[in-house]
Amino acid sequence: MRNTKRTQKIAFFLMLLATLLIVVPVGMIVIIIVQKGLPAINWQFLSDIPRQGMRTGGIFPAIIGTVYLVLGAIVFALPIGLLAAIYLSEYSRDNFLTRIIRLAIVNLSGVPSVVYGLFGLALFVVFFKFGASILSGSLTLGIMILPIIITTSREALESVPQSFREVSLSLGASKWQTIRHIVLPNAIPGILTGTILGLGRAAGETAPILFTVAAFYLPQLPKSIFDQAMALPYHLYVISTQVPNVDEKVRYGTALVLLVLVLFMNLVAIIIRYRFRKKKKW
Amino acid sequence: MRKLKEFIIEKLILVCGLAAIFFVVLIFLFLLKEGLALFKSVNPFAFIFGKSWYPISEPAQLGIMPLILGSLLVTLGAAIISIPIGVACAVYISEVAPSKTKEILKSGIELLAAIPSVVLGFIGMVTLVPWVKSVFHLPTGLTALSGSIMLAFMAMPTIVSVAEDALYSVPKNYKEGAFALGATHWQTIYRVMLPAASSGIVAAVMLGIGRVIGETMAVMMITGNSAIIPHSILQPVRTLTATIAAEMGEAVVGSEHYFALFAIGIVLFVISFIINVTADLFLHKRQ
Amino acid sequence: MVKFEVHDLNVWFEKAQALKNVNIEVRQNEILSIIGPSNSGKTTFIRMLNRLNELNPHFRMNGIVELDRLNIRNTDVEALRKRVGMVFALPLPLPLSIYENIAYGIRMHGLKNKAKIGQIVERSLKQSYLWDEVKDRLDESAFKLSGGQQQRLCISRTLAVAPEVILFDEPCSGLDPISTAKVEEAMLELKKEYTIVLVTNNVKQAARVGDRTAFFLSGELIEIDTTDRIFTVPKDQRTDGYIRGRFG
Predict the structure, then answer these.
(1) CB-based contact (8 Å) between B140 and chain A?
(2) Where along chain B do its domains lie?
(3) Cβ of A115 and B112 within 8 Å?
(4) In Å, how far is A282's CA from the nearest CA of chain B?
(5) Do B214 and A263 touch (CB under 8 A)?
């Protein structure tokens, strides 16, 4: 009897240790970045263009570039992803085709990000001749976040109670009317959550944009979607590995800006999800 | 009129429903288009099993064995570290942690999952790499081991959350039955719950490993960039993913080097396809 | 005058047969009560009349259901459901305001004129005796109403699209006796203009309200007759047993 109790204590202690081994470093990472990056953050850093190969000046074009890319990605991924989610939730049956679709989504979400970069290069940059541009980068990122949008939107749609659909149909509304007026409006918070999570993911990815859009040193802002652009993740990569003599706090500062951007989006998504769960009237 | 509009909309919905299939096929086709072109001039076996990767030498040597072994080594190391810790953490969070701490812990793990890999690569470069260098007295800390540690870290949120889901869906009466027979909580966990959740846990591990194999930026920044067959975990290595990322910038479009990088892409795509499909099968295997 | 005619109806969900060889008619302006123990097929039957069973992917049928002598499978299902409305067992307001709940059906059918919509909303609420209780708060969420009020809201909602038949599927199962009485009162008033089919678990309610009563058991129609005769001199002893509470 005592032996089993002792075994349990040891087991639980080890498990706690394992958990701490994961969670504590996360906190430490965030703290280090904030500590060492905060000194670099000032208005000039955020709003100025890079100067002298990034030894002075700011990261404004990288911030703007990231914003453009992310917006472009969502413009592409949201309509297609939402309609696909509607198909899966409202129209599809339990058959072979649906299983294949599900398999395809699982696959898309598991494809390595650098392979997306290759694909974007081959299709958009070379084949469609868009060249390295915001257009190519956005489309590549859009395809990459498509599975996230589809999956979260589908869950949001499926969580609308079936009884609402039955009531609507029994009043003589058509299937699409039911979706448009009853199902969709009530799934919007969930869809929004998924969209923002997708945005966060797109903002932080480097490999897909390496060959499709990113440039390191562009002192002026992009003027059209066919231009190249700087982007925060790529910028961080280059100043950490390729450019010597960059002030340490600039590197940490860039990391901090990127981290804050991504975490902020995740936080917004979580808040939406939380408040929606509380407010649900059914 | 309304009926016509609805008909069009519903057709559009169907087309988008097939979008995922369309894109998977499209990706594979384009990879094949550019990658198979390599095998006009290079023997596939020589490509996969060749021991030397010197793409810019004359003549170019395009054997990816060092890269495969590099990926394998780093992945194995990451697996050894992340599987026990990840599963233990999942058990802790789902079974042992009091509910308030549970929420904090889950948020912490979600936080880790959200951090971009380039940021983790950067942090790894400035903290982990020097640490490995000094602890093991190495000429450089850019080693497979550093990569394994960082990648283990990146795999763990996936492993923890999927394993935790698997444990959560074990029917409550399994647990209650064991307790009723006088088992302790721990005994119930390892005799009843873990076996019951085993297919989900296997899926969790596979998905975590899938994430590791596909990781690019962090490995590029931490494992060094030496495309030679590694003899120990304390050496720099080069993974399949890092090779593509590092060399595509220099490869001329349409050159043999270019095709070779796409061929590596095919290898990666196939590997991740197998892992993800298998993991999904495990996830949907109800025992 | 016959409203619905059902010939040799068989229904399956996957392999399980829910209705066996049902032959029955529903007459204009009557209240037809349908009684029987659970799983007797009552709900499956009533859902045949507005083709709601088709939402279930495992649904299969053969046989004919006719409304006004036309096979309902060959008519436009949206038009059918406009003519045959349904009130469900649990009060199911849509997540909209009271006003919008009532207006929903007619809006979906294309009515845009605000004045007309307002008129119809008011009239429908009056028909189910709910108008006085909610006329000052039409913009509030329908979920704020009590259970009984919500159910009357659902009746109004169905009335707003001007159906010819109203199907009631155990409408009072979640309601207190006073609300139940109000719903029954509404039904008796409504039958003057509409044809009503009522599925109920409450044998006494069937007796109170129905002109004719049908007894279902295990998917079969055992007996159908005027309510008086069913409750005094049933022909089948199973009917007798169920009514007396010997099983069910």
Answers:
(1) no
(2) 2-40, 65-283
(3) no
(4) 24
(5) no
Contact residues on chain A for B154, CB-CB shorter than 8 A:
none
For residues A263 and A15, what is the distance between their CA atoms, to the nearest angstrom?
27
Distances (CA, A) of C85 to B43, C124, C126: 71, 13, 18
CB contact under 8 A, C55 and A168: no
List domains and CATH numbers for chain A: 43-279 (1.10.3720.10)
pLDDT along chain B (287 residues), means of 10: 89 93 94 90 86 82 89 93 92 86 86 92 92 88 90 93 89 85 83 86 91 92 86 89 89 86 93 91 72
Chain CA centroid to CA A152, Å: 12
The reply to whether residue A172 touches residue C82, judged by beta carbons under 8 angstroms, is: yes
b/e B49-73 (16+ beta carbons within 10 angstroms → b): ebebbebeeeebebbbbbbbbbbbb
Nearest to A166 among C55, C57, C157 (CB): C55
User: What's this model's pTM, rounded to 2 decimal places?
Assistant: 0.89
CA distance from start to end of chain B: 51
The conformation of residue C59, written as its DSSP 8-state character, comes to E
Among the partner residues A167, A181, A281, nearest to C92 by beta-carbon distance: A167
User: For C185-203, how does the pLDDT look when each residue is reduced to its tens digit (9 = 90+)?
Assistant: 889 999 899 999 999 988 9
Within 10 A of A127 (CB to CB), how many other CB atoms are there?
12
A237-263: b or e for each residue (b if 16 or more CB lie within 10 Å)?
bbbbbeeeebeebbbbbbbbbbbebbb
B85 chain-A contacts, CB cut-off 8 A: 18, 21-22
User: Could you say which of A94, A169, A281 has the minimum Cβ distance to residue C95?
Assistant: A281
- Cis before B59 (ω within 30): yes
| Ramachandran assignment for B10, one of left (phi > 0), alpha (psi -120 to 50 degrees), beta (any other) | alpha
CA-to-CA distance for B40 and B58, rounded, in angstroms?
18
Q: Which residues contact A274 (CB under 8 A, 6 or more apart)?
A: none
Per the DSSP assignment, residues forming a β-bridge with A208 are: none
Query: Which residue in C67, C141, C59, C65 sits closest to C100, CA to CA?
Result: C141
Distances (CA, A) of C13 to A47, A165, C16, C44: 65, 20, 5, 10
What six digits make up the tokens of B5?
A: 């509009």
Say if residue C144's pLDDT is above 80. yes
Residues of chain C contacting residue A165, judged by C-beta atoms under 8 Å apart: 55
pLDDT digits (tens, 9 = 90+) for A74-83: 999 999 999 9
Q: Which residue has the tokens 């504590």?
A: A24
CATH architecture, domain defined by B65-283: Orthogonal Bundle (1.10)
Contact B121 A240 (CB under 8 A): yes
| ipTM associated with this complex | 0.90
Both structure tokens of B74: 């780093």
Task: Judge whether A143 and A124 are in contact, CB under 8 Å.
Answer: no
Q: Do B184 and A5 touch (CB under 8 A)?
A: yes
Structure-block tokens of residue B135: 């602890």
Q: At what angle do helices B144-168 and A2-37 cross, to 10 degrees?
A: 120
